[in-house]
Amino acid sequence: MSQGDGPAPSNLPAGVSLLENQVAGHTAAQGCLGLLKPTGDDAGTVLKPTGKVQCGIREIAFYERLEEVRRRHREAGEDTEEEALWTALFRVVPQYYGHPKLTVDGREVEFIQLEDLTAGLEWPCIMDVKIGRRTWDPLATPEKRRAEEGKYKACRQRYGLCIPGFQFYAVRKGGALVRHGKDYGKRLTEDNIRDAFLLYLNATEDGRLSRTLLERFLADLRIIRDWARKQTTFRLYSSSVLLVYDAAQLGQCGDSALQRNTSLNASNGQTAAAAPLAVKARMIDFAHAFPADASEAGTVDDNYLQGVESLVGLFEQFLAAEGNVD
Ligand SMILES: Nc1ncnc2c1ncn2[C@@H]1O[C@H](COP(=O)(O)OP(=O)(O)OP(=O)(O)O)[C@@H](O)[C@H]1O
Ligand SMILES: O=P(O)(O)O[C@@H]1[C@H](O)[C@H](O)[C@@H](OP(=O)(O)O)[C@H](OP(=O)(O)O)[C@H]1O
C-alpha cells in the first residue's frame, strides 16, 4: 500500500527511527514514509503507517477482529469450531498493539503497531512473499488492475505468488548482508524462482539446505495453509507471508557446510543443543482484506489458498531433496 507521498521523513518524533531491515513495501529509500521502529518502552514493536485511508481502515479492522477473537477465547476458555479456525492464526499473525498517531514532519500520521518479527535477531534473514495470482481488490480502478496484472507475471502465473523483496546474511561469506528488492523479484521466472529461495535459505553451492530450517518454516506455513483451506469469510488480496530466520544460529544446527565461522559459535558459548533456531512464517499486510461478498459466501479464497499451497509445496520439495543436513 502507499505509505504517504513526498520525500522521506526528515523529522521523526523522538524515540522512533526507520526500520532499517524493511525488505518490501514503500520505504524511506523510495521517498515514502516506511515502517518505523520505536525505542524505549515500545522496543520490540514496529509502526506501520496506514497510508491510503481505506487501506488503513481495512487493515486495522482485520487486526481488531483478530483481537476480538483473542478476547473471547481468553474469557470463554474454549472455542466454537469457527473460533478455533481463527485462534489458530494467533501463532502466525504478529501481535497487534493498536493504532497510535504520531506527528511526522508536522503531519499527523496514524500507524499500526505490531510485534517486530525481527526483534532480537543477530543476522535477520527476511523474505516478503506476496500471495495470490490476483493482487488487485474489488475496488481497484481499471488502471490499478492493469498495473497489478502487468508485473511479476511469470511467477504469479505458475505459483500464485511473487517475491517483492528479501535480505539474507550469507553464512559462508562471513555473514555478508545481501539485499534484493522488487526489481530482482520482477525478473524472476517460474524456472529460477527456486534459486531465490535457495539463496535466502543459505543453501550450499550444491543446493543443500538445513532440514531444521525447512521443518520449522513448514510448521508455520501449514498452519496458514490449513486456515486458508477452511476459512470462507475473508478475501486477502496483496497480502504477504513474511519469512524470518536468524542466520547467526544456522551454524549451530550441526552441519559444517552451512556453518559460519566456528569461532563465532564458540564465542557465543552455545552448544548446538542449547541454541534454538529462530524461524517463523507470519501473515502480514491486510490492507486489502475484504469480507467475502454474497457471491463468494461459503467458498474458500482460492486466490490466496493457491499461493499458500504453492509455498508449502516448494518447501516440501526442498525438504524431500537428498543431501539436506541436520
Ligand atoms: N510486524 C513486522 N515486523 C517486522 N517487519 C515487518 C513487519 N511488518 C512488515 N514488516 C516489514 O515491512 C515490509 C512491508 O510490510 P507491508 O507489506 O505490511 O507494507 P506495505 O507497504 O503495505 O506493502 P505493499 O506496498 O507491498 O502493499 C515487509 O516486507 C517487512 O520487511
Ligand atoms: O511491487 P510494486 O511494483 O512496488 O507495486 C506496488 C505494490 O503492488 C503495492 O502493494 C501497491 O500498494 P497498495 O497495496 O497500496 O495498492 C503499490 O501501489 P501504489 O503505487 O498505488 O501505492 C504498487 O505500486
Task: Give a structural overview.
- The protein is 33% helix and 20% strand.
- The strands form 4 sheets. The protein has a 5-stranded antiparallel beta sheet.
- It is of the alpha+beta class and 326 residues long.
- The model is unreliable at 1-5 and 261-274 (pLDDT under 50).
- A hairpin with a 5-residue loop joins strand 7 and strand 8.
- The chain is globular, with a radius of gyration of 20 Å.
- The protein has a single domain (16-212, 282-319), classed as 2-Layer Sandwich (D-amino Acid Aminotransferase, Chain A, domain 1).
- Adenosine-5'-triphosphate binds next to strand 3, strand 5, strand 6, strand 7 and strand 10.
CATH class membership? Alpha Beta
Main β-sheet description:
5 strands, antiparallel
What is the fold named in CATH at topology level? D-amino Acid Aminotransferase, Chain A, domain 1
Strand content: 15-25%
Q: List each distinct ligand once.
A: adenosine-5'-triphosphate, D-MYO-inositol-1,4,5-triphosphate
Number of beta strands: 12
On the 0 to 100 scale, the average pLDDT is 91
CATH superfamily: Inositol polyphosphate kinase
Radius of gyration: 20 Å
**Unreliable segments (pLDDT under 50, ≥5 consecutive)?**
1-5, 261-274
Order of helices and strands: EEEHHEEEHHEEHHHEEHEEH
User: What is the count of DSSP helices, taking H or I runs of 4+ residues?
Assistant: 9
Q: What strand line-up does the widest sheet have? A: 8-7-6-10-11
Number of domains: 1
- The proportion of residues forming helix, as a percent range, comes to 25-40%
3D shape: globular
CATH architecture: 2-Layer Sandwich
Cα separation of the termini: 40 Å
Structural class: alpha+beta
